[in-house]
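Severity: low
Component: inverse-folding endpoint
Summary: output formatting inconsistent between runs
Steps to reproduce: submit the following structure tokens with default settings.
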């Protein structure tokens, strides 16, 4: 169970103002947060590694690494949105299965960035006089599948891998840090994030649909929550400024959970390339995946992962600015433009 700070006495809907810093400002989510800040006229400070550029209009401040960040990098900021992280990659998952020593090495690498690095930024923020610290975590801090109902913020943490373990540990330790020091820590947990610039499995699905590759997803009815990168940016900004967010954990989704087959069909519609879905039973698909050593990947497609995001709506009054279809349309438009297709 998370260690929560007492809520601030302010219950008014007024929100703090002032400059906001973003670690990992040059990343997929970071750029969306930058755009959201600038669109609302909020001064943005991008914390990036040396030699890395930020969005135009963002005050870039370079650091050598999270572990050595100085309070000066965050001076003048009222809040920090912490995005910089070692992200989940398949080669790490494969390494964990080879030996105990390799599994420990992978976990240590995740902890170094996602736990120790996050705590270093929080300490620098406290010393710089920052009031609010927003950790963008992951639903993997809770698990890979839901228990037959949408996961809530109060469910027990059961992370499935080293990445999830590091995110769960970061949540607990930062909430404890906030309780001890007075820094207002907020945790935001997104599920799968998609949008213009997306990579990994989501991009692979769009490539497959565009090429007309048959996908064995027609009989899969498990539903999975998603959040567009612009919706996540909007929610992170709300958590950085709303008085009632202090010390809380919030899930963020688009508000509609499609099945994987439905998602593929919707993407096909927006890409102008109908998805070719084969009705392969989930049991058969799982058996083939086991023989091919792809069980983990198939479980992500056939298992349900629904996330309850009612708390952020009820507590902060946040509403997703984009619907799922709007987010998918924007993603498909970016993908087609990147391929050189005409609008």
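Observed output (run 2 of 3):
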């Amino acid at each position: 169970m998370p260690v929560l700070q007492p809520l601030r006495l302010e219950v008014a809907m007024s929100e703090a103002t002032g400059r906001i810093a973003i670690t990992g400002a040059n990343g997929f989510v970071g750029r969306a947060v930058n755009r959201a800040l600038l669109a609302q006229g909020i001064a943005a400070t991008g914390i990036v590694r040396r030699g890395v550029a930020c969005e135009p209009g963002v005050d870039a401040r370079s650091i050598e690494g999270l572990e050595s960040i100085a309070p000066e990098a965050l001076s003048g900021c009222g809040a920090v949105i912490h995005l910089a992280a070692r992200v989940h990659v398949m080669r790490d998952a494969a390494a964990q299965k080879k030996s105990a020593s390799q599994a420990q090495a992978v976990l240590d690498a995740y902890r170094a960035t996602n736990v120790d690095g996050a705590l270093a930024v929080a300490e620098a923020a406290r010393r710089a006089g920052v009031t609010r610290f927003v950790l963008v975590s992951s639903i993997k801090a809770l698990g890979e599948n839901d228990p037959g109902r949408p996961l809530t913020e109060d469910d027990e943490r059961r992370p499935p891998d080293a990445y999830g373990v590091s995110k769960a540990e970061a949540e607990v330790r930062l909430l404890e840090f906030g309780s001890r020091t007075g820094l207002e820590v907020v945790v935001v947990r997104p599920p799968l994030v998609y949008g213009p610039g997306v990579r990994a499995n989501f991009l692979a699905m769009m490539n497959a649909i565009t090429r007309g590759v048959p996908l064995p997803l027609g009989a899969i009815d498990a539903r999975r929550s998603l959040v567009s990168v612009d919706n996540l940016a909007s929610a992170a900004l709300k958590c950085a400024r709303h008085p009632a967010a202090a010390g809380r954990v919030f899930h963020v989704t688009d508000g509609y959970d499609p099945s994987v087959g439905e998602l593929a069909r919707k993407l096909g519609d927006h890409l102008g390339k109908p998805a070719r879905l084969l009705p392969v039973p989930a049991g058969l698909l799982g058996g083939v995946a086991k023989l091919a050593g792809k069980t983990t990947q198939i479980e992500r497609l056939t298992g349900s992962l629904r996330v309850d995001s009612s708390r952020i709506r009820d507590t902060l009054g946040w509403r997703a600015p984009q619907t799922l279809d709007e987010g998918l349309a924007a993603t498909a438009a970016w993908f087609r433009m990147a391929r050189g297709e005409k609008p």
